[in-house]
Each structure stands twice: as C-alpha cells, then as structure tokens.
Design a protein that fits this description.
Number of strands of chain A: 0
Number of domains of chain A: 1
CATH superfamily of chain A: MetI-like
Mean pLDDT of chain A: 84
Strand content of chain A: under 5%
Low-confidence stretches of chain A: none
Number of strands of chain B: 0
Strand content of chain B: under 5%
Radius of gyration of chain B: 25 Å
Order of helices and strands of chain B: HHHHHHHHHHHHH
Oligomer: heterodimer
Low-confidence stretches of chain B: 1-5
CATH architecture of chain A: Orthogonal Bundle
Structural class of chain B: mainly alpha
Shape of chain A: globular
Number of helices of chain B: 13
Chain lengths: 296, 351
C-alpha cells in the first residue's frame, strides 16, 4: 500500500504545466535566470529612459556641462551638456540591433555554406574548409578592425566586418552536424521519397544543428556588442557624435583622467551588463542542452 | 604500407616525423592563404587607396601621380606579382606616416609589446590556473560560484572600460602608479637598449631609477591585460579539472587511499593542463586584440599602437604588414603547439 502511495506521490510531483516546468528549469540553472533578468532590466530601463528623463540625446545644453549624477540627470551630463542616460538609451537602439543583425547574417551565411560543404563533400568541401582555415588564421577582432578601416566608417561596414569574423565558426558547426547525419537511413529514405538534394540538405539535415547554433549564437551576441563598442572606442566604424556605447566611453576618457568619472563609467557599465546578460544566457543554454544530451 | 592502428609502445617518437612534415605543410599553405587574403583586403575591396590617403579635396593630377607611385594603375595580377616579389625579399612596404620600412617599424616596436604580453600572459596563467584549480576543488561552494562569476564577468568585460576604471582608481584616486603614458617618464634617464625589454635592460645597465619607473608604468597595462586573459583560462582549467576528478582513474586512485589533495595537485592538475596548452593558440588572437586597445589607452609604443595609428591614418602598407605579421605569428604558434601536443599525447598523430 505504501509503495503505491509513493509512486502516486512521485507522479504528482512531476511538473505538468509549462509554467512549473519553466520555473524548475530556472531554479536548476540560476545562471539563466540571472542573465535573463539582467537583459530584461537593461532593456526596460533604457526603453523607459526616454519617458522618465526626456532629454534630447543629440542636443547639448551649455549651462549643464559636466554635471555629476543628480536628480535632474540620473547619470550626469557630458562635456556638451547632453544627458548621459538619454545618450545611453539612444545608443541601445544602435548597439542591440547591430548585434542581432550581425549574428543573424553570420548564422545565415555560416549555415548555408557549412551545410553545403558538409553534404556535398569533395572539392566544394575542401575549398570551403581551406577558406575557413585561412579566415581563422586572423584573430577575429583584428580582421574586423582591418575590414572596417579599409571599407570605411559606417554602420553597414561594421556589421559586415563583424559578421564575417563570426561566419567560420558557424560553417564548422553546420558542416559537422551535416557530416554526422549524412549517412543515416532517413536521408536515404528521403531521397527515395523524391526529395531533392537541396531539400534534404537544408530542410531535413540543417535543423539538427539548431541547438548548438542557439548556444553559440547567444555567445556571439555578447561578442558582437563588445566588438562594436571596442571598434567605436578606437575610432573605427562608428564615430562621434553618434551615441554608440563605445563612442560614449571614448568621449569620457579625458574627463575620467581629470576626475569626472561618470562620463565613461555608465556607458561602459551598460556594455558590460549587456554582454554579461548574453554570456550568462548562452552559458546556461550550453549547460542545459548538454544535460539533455546526457539524458538528465 | 599498412599503417598501425595502435600506438607503438616501444617507440613513442614513431610517426612524429611524418606528422611534423604534414603539419608544417598545412602551416605554409595557411600562410600563403593569409598573404592572399591580406592582398585582397587592401586592394580589391571598394575604395581607392590613393583617394583615401589624399582626402576628398585632392586634384586629379595629384591623384594620378600618387596612384602611379602606389602602383595602383597596373593590372591587378602585376600588383599581386609585385607584392609577392617584395614579400620574398622581406619588404613589407613603407609606412607613409613614419616614412620607414614597415618591417623596421614593427621590429623596433615589438619588444614593447612582447614585454607587456609576456608579463601579462605569465601573470594570467599563474593566477588563472590556481583560481581554476581552487574552483574545481571546492566545487559548488560559494567560492566556486564567486570564481565562476569572476570568469564570466571577465569574459563580458569591455577591455577599454576596465583600463579606464583601473586608471581612475589606481592613478587618479590612489596615486599608486605612474601616469598612464608610455613606458617611462620623460624625466627619467633613458635606458640603453640591450634587449628592448625595459625591465631587463635597466637591470643590466644598473639604471635603478629607470627600473622602478618602468615597473610603475608596467603595472596597470599588465594588470588590465592579465585580467582579460585570465577569464577564459579560469573557465577552462576549472572545467578540465572537474572532468578529470570525475574520471575512472581518479576513482581508482581515490579508492586506494590517496588523499584529495594529492589527487588534486598531482593527477588532476597534470591531466588538465595538457589540453589547456591548446587554448594558448586561440588566446593569442584574443590577447592581441585586447593588446591593441590597451596600448592605445596607455600610449604604449608597441605594435598594437602602431596598428591603431595605421588604421586611423589609412596607412595601407603598414596595416598590411601588421596583419601579415600577426597572421604569421598566429600560424607559427599554432603549429608549434600542435607539434608539442603531439609529443605529449602521441595518440593525436594517427589522425
């Protein structure tokens, strides 16, 4: 009798609803919760900034130059009298879409090329692998740096340059997955059923790498933000007066040395928080999917 | 000839020669590819380098003259042949800012970067390995969580912001270090150049003022760079040590009665460190990228600063030379690591 009751108890403890399963997931992986919380908090604050602190991020007010954080200006003002919180919020509309676009392009290109290389094999595969190896002989940030310097300072060139530096990893990922699935029976079955090779390659085999792509993609989002900001700080890519986060930090450097710490601190902290959020989410996704593979 | 599919117990060096030859061949191919890519990047991409150099207000004749000087009016194939010819003679071109050969520029600035990167790398490795080991030893304790957080924060840290923070705290607020401008104060007697490493040179020439001053200048950049490099090292060491601790042979050793401490330092560390060697190659790229920013902020006269100036001024030949040098170093480093790794773990040779 006790045994039956125990089994019933066990069964009733298994979470039924999606909500309770999500809660359990978050409890087991606090990193995921932390990362998502940081991102949500960041986005909300920045979205609401325009409402709560309605200053024009591009227009200066010479009467409020270099003011430390106060009631009127929660994060202080810069050397032109512009409110820093507003500039950071404006910058979010630049940095975050750039990061997502970059990663989206890298994933698209990487998966298309990688799947083709893995499935076709032979000469195509060899050419793609050699090209990828050569591309990976350059540190990604330096590659992006040089590309932007040569192509010129603008948002599209930054996006392209950073996307190109991410593509090799996705090519390898897609190629690996396709290679390991290529010989399985269901591929033969699909071929017999009349599917074209293209269809098999992209619709049947590619979705297998969705999970690692998700993990790596999230981490790439963090790196994209850091790279864009880093390039902008060096004066490459996005330049003042565009309120990109890296530009904001560079604008504040000479003031930090003379004591006005807030001009660089807050934009930099935003970069850190954004990258941290994506890194935490990416790391926890990696842990979660690895665990699922091991059957836990 | 049939290839043995088991490791040759009697001769650990078997197959090494063929592997080395293969690996060097791949390295040379990669280098050749890098040479082509650099050429493509700076010539074929849209934009006229002469126009970029002269600016928007240049006159037609000046444009044509500079184009001819730069060899841009020749067909692409000839340009490529010129480029290859120059490379084979060791000529990386001339920087139009410094008016010196790029190779000389880089060679002169290399010791500054090397001093910075080597010190930071050593510091980061010592700290990173110890901390990673600590985290694995106290798995799931608050220390572990703290260390993991540090590693994740370090991986998300914008290096330029961290450098500014560090300058503000340690220079502006506390005044503990020298000003973040270059390697030596102007007021200190110059150090005669023996190796190019200021610390070594000032020791060798007994220039104690310079020794103290150069160290004071080194602290912040080294700290910044070391912090950035240590984050991935901590993560990797922790992961590897945890894996080893879960493995069968550790279970066996523990059942025989060896203490946790002995296991940690003898077996776990040794087995975990070997794969860590492989990330040195990847870390090089990451380190050079952080290094450019660090050199820029601290006005450190190394190759990173040179590259940044070249990029801002669109000094094409200098950019080309820098990227090629970096790629060459990267490829050589990975080559050496792969071969070393094969000597340590011969199973890799059979692939």
């Amino acid at each position: 009798m006790e045994a039956v009751g125990e089994v019933e108890g066990l069964l009733s403890r298994a979470p039924e609803s999606r909500l309770s399963r999500s809660v359990l997931l978050l409890r087991r992986h606090p990193q995921l919760g932390a990362g998502l919380a940081i991102l949500v908090a960041l986005v909300t604050t920045l979205a609401l900034a325009q409402v709560l602190v309605p200053y024009d991020p591009l227009r200066g007010d010479s009467s409020t130059v270099l003011e430390p954080p106060s009631q009127a200006h929660p994060l202080g003002t810069d050397s032109f009298g512009r409110d820093i919180l507003s500039r950071i919020a404006q910058g979010a509309w630049l940095d975050l879409p750039i990061a997502f676009t970059t990663v989206a392009i890298a994933i698209t290109l990487g998966l298309l090329i990688g799947a083709l290389a893995g499935y076709t094999g032979g000469l195509v595969d060899m050419v793609v692998m050699r090209a990828t190896d050569i591309l990976m002989a350059f540190p990604s940030f330096i590659l992006a740096m040089v590309m932007v310097a040569v192509l010129g300072n603008s948002v599209p060139t930054v996006v392209i340059a950073i996307a190109v530096s991410f593509v090799p990893d996705f090519i390898r990922l897609a190629r690996g997955e396709v290679l390991s699935e290529r010989e399985l029976e269901y591929v033969d079955a699909a071929r017999c059923a009349g599917n074209s090779e293209w269809r098999i390659m992209y619709i049947q085999l590619l979705p297998n790498c969705l999970t690692p792509v998700l993990v790596h993609g999230t981490l790439c989002l963090a790196w994209a933000i850091l790279d864009v900001a880093g390039l902008a700080f060096l004066g490459i890519g996005i330049t003042p007066p565009t309120p990109e986060w890296g530009v904001l930090v560079s604008e504040g450097v000479r003031h930090t040395i003379s004591g006005d710490w807030w001009v660089s601190l807050f934009p930099g902290a935003t970069i850190l928080l954004a990258a941290l959020g994506f890194n935490l989410v990416g790391d926890s996704l990696r842990d979660i999917t690895a665990r699922e593979e091991r059957g836990q | 000839m049939k290839q043995a599919c088991y490791w040759n117990w009697s001769d650990p060096m078997s197959g090494l020669a063929s592997y080395v030859v293969r690996r060097v061949g791949i390295g040379i191919l990669a280098l050749a590819g890098a040479v082509c890519v650099v050429f493509i990047m700076t010539r074929i991409l849209p934009g006229n380098p002469a126009a970029v150099r002269l600016g928007a207000t240049a006159r037609e004749e000046t444009l044509r003259r500079v184009e001819h000087e730069m060899g841009l009016d020749k067909p692409l194939i000839l340009q490529f042949a010129d480029y290859l010819g120059k490379l084979s003679r060791g000529d990386l071109g001339h920087s139009w800012i410094t008016r010196q050969p790029v190779l000389d520029d880089l060679a002169r600035r290399l010791p500054a970067t090397a001093e910075l990167v080597l010190l930071a790398g050593i510091l980061a490795t010592i700290v990173g390995v110890s901390v990673g080991l600590l985290a694995a030893a106290f798995h799931n304790s608050w220390l572990d969580v703290l260390i993991r957080t540090w590693a994740t924060v370090g991986a998300s840290m914008p290096v330029f912001w961290f450098a500014i923070l560090v300058i503000y705290v340690f220079y502006y607020r506390l005044g503990w270090v020298a000003s973040p401008m270059g390697r030596l104060d102007v007021s200190v007697t110059a150090v005669s150049r023996v190796t190019g490493f200021l610390v070594a040179d000032s020791l060798l020439t007994r220039n104690w003022d310079a020794l103290g001053n150069s160290l004071a200048h080194l602290v912040l950049p080294v700290l910044t760079l070391a912090f950035m490099i240590s984050a991935p090292i901590v993560k990797m060491v922790r992961g590897k040590v945890l894996d080893v601790l879960k493995s069968d042979f550790v279970r066996t050793v523990r059942s025989v009665g060896v203490t946790q401490q002995e296991i940690l330092f003898r077996d776990a560390l040794r087995n975990a460190l070997v794969p860590v060697v492989t990330i040195v190659g990847i870390m090089f790229g990451y380190t050079m990228a952080s290094n450019v920013v660090v050199e820029m902020i601290f006005a450190w006269p190394g190759i990173g600063y040179y590259a940044w100036q070249a990029l801002l001024n669109k000094d094409l030949e200098a950019i080309q030379g820098f990227v090629l040098a970096i790629a060459a170093m990267y490829i050589t480093l990975n080559l050496v690591i792969d071969i070393l790794y094969t000597i340590i773990d011969p199973r890799v040779r059979l692939t």
